[in-house]
Amino acid sequence: MADYGKTHAEQSADCPLCGGRGVVLRGDEAVSCECMTQKKADQAFRQAGLPKAMRQCRFDNFRFDFYTGEHLTRARKAFQEARDFAGRVMIDPAAVGLMLTGDVGTGKTFLAACIANEIIAQSGRVLFLIVPDLLDQLRASFDGDSQTREREIMDQARSVPVLILDDLGAHNYTEWVSGRIYTILNYRLNEQLPTVVTTNLTLPDIEDCLGNRAVSRLVLLCRQFRLTAARDIRHLLHKERELGGESA
Ligand SMILES: [Zn+2]
To answer: Which residues crowd ion ligand 1, with CB under 5 Å?
Structure first.
């Protein structure tokens, strides 16, 4: 049982169905209220660090229609590998990870979020870390005196059963920060823990940013797949939303 740290009444005080008891009567039987299901789901998403906007990223609603020609071929391949991986890690805790490369707006983060959502749906443990946020957190803990916080972040990133590092880009890596990232990758490689990385960098670019030690770990941790698109998918989505707004 998960420890919620709060009583049902505290959690559900605002629920009109159960009035905060967490259970409702169905006939003579007391059953868990639907607010509890929602709260468990919210808790799982929070633990996984998955941003709210990405909770709808599911393999079922991947938009193949955004890709044509060779882009579609690559998207199909990456999609299949991502979906296979999400299934495989539930059976094989040492499954080899994935690196999804490609320019911004090619669907890498969407696929990575699909993996996270699928693992959460299967009650598996996953941590979705957006690399720029991770760097901010690590820097904050370096500047301040919150070494406990840094240890917490590092412990989680190192040991979570499935780690997703989203947007490993050309950020400003200090030696200290790149050392932290190397430590995470090296630990996960040694412990054979599945890791997914999305990046708009090539391997030589990553080597420039993070050094060749990090690249050598990445290559062993992840099989690489590239996504490409004729146009930035985020712009296409934006346009769709605007058109949807006009016709509504
Ligand atoms: Zn309720």
So the answer is: 12, 15, 17-18, 33, 35
